[in-house]
Amino acid sequence: MFYRSSLFKSNRFIRNRARFNDLADLKDLFLEEKKYTLEEMPCKDPYSIFKIWFQEARESAEIVNPSIMCLATATRTGIPSLRYMLCDSFNERGFKFFTYHSSRKGEELKQNPLAAMCFFWAPFLRTIRIEGHVEQVPDNVSDELFDKRSYESQINMHCSSQTERIASSYVLEEREREKRKIFQSTPIPRPQNFGWYVLTPSVVEFWQIKQKKERVRYRKPSLKEDELTYKGDKGWVYEYLEP
């Protein structure tokens, strides 16, 4: 379940807006509530911390959709691009998202499977930055995930490839009408140019400002570690970073 209330329409913001004169002062609005620090967390692996933070974001009426994230990809020569999109699901194996294989991100992932994603939940002043390797999931898995989508979502996925130029939005509207006629009484198959991907993290960095600034990076261990690297859970190590 996702909440649709806007941060800047919340009662708490309206009650306090007279106190703030510029954007820098907005920071004080978010410092009124604090549950715990990263250092106090009982779990020491990035998936468990992400799950806790995501659930808190999901329960917040001030966050429109906690699954919105920014995905960064790059070409083989290192030219970057990024875009906001939805994280479809996550577990200990990675973070899933869907796109068209011929889209810019799809083409870049073919050239360079290394990517990064970032979640930002403003009411909590929390950011989670994730780096890792991306793989396209098997077709049968994409088929299963596509079948679980709503009818409207399936129709929309047949109406665009995120690559071709069009004369106007009317082209997409006409295309949608055609697809509805075609699939009026038949199951909608997954477009062959569309599928799911999973990013397997190698680095997960948590950053928050509450009563104190915290920045903690979880990563897979290397051959050489020192006294500033701490042993985490489930094969991870972590270190504290300057904000």
Question: Topology of this protein?
Answer:
Blueprint: H1 11-16, H2 26-29, H3 46-59, E1 68-74, E2 80-86, E3 89-91, E4 94-100, H4 104-111, E5 114-121, E6 126-136, H5 139-147, H6 151-157, H7 169-182, E7 194-209, E8 213-219, E9 230-231, E10 237-240
Describe the structure.
This protein has 243 residues and is of the alpha+beta class. Helix content is 26%, strand content 30%. It has helices at residues 11-16, 26-29, 46-59, 104-111, 139-147, 151-157, 169-182, and strands at residues 68-74, 80-86, 89-91, 94-100, 114-121, 126-136, 194-209, 213-219, 230-231, 237-240. Strands 1, 2, 3, 4, 5, 6, 7, 8, 9 and 10 form a ten-stranded antiparallel β-sheet that branches. The chain is elongated.
Short description:
Helix content is 26%, strand content 30%.
Salient structural properties:
7 helices; 243 residues; 10-stranded antiparallel sheet; disordered N terminus; single chain; alpha+beta; 26% helix
Global structural class: alpha+beta
How much of the sequence lies in strands comes to: 25-35%
Number of strands: 10
Q: Tell me the span between the first and last alpha carbons.
A: 33 Å
State Rg. 21 Å
H/E topology pattern = HHHEEEEHEEHHHEEEE
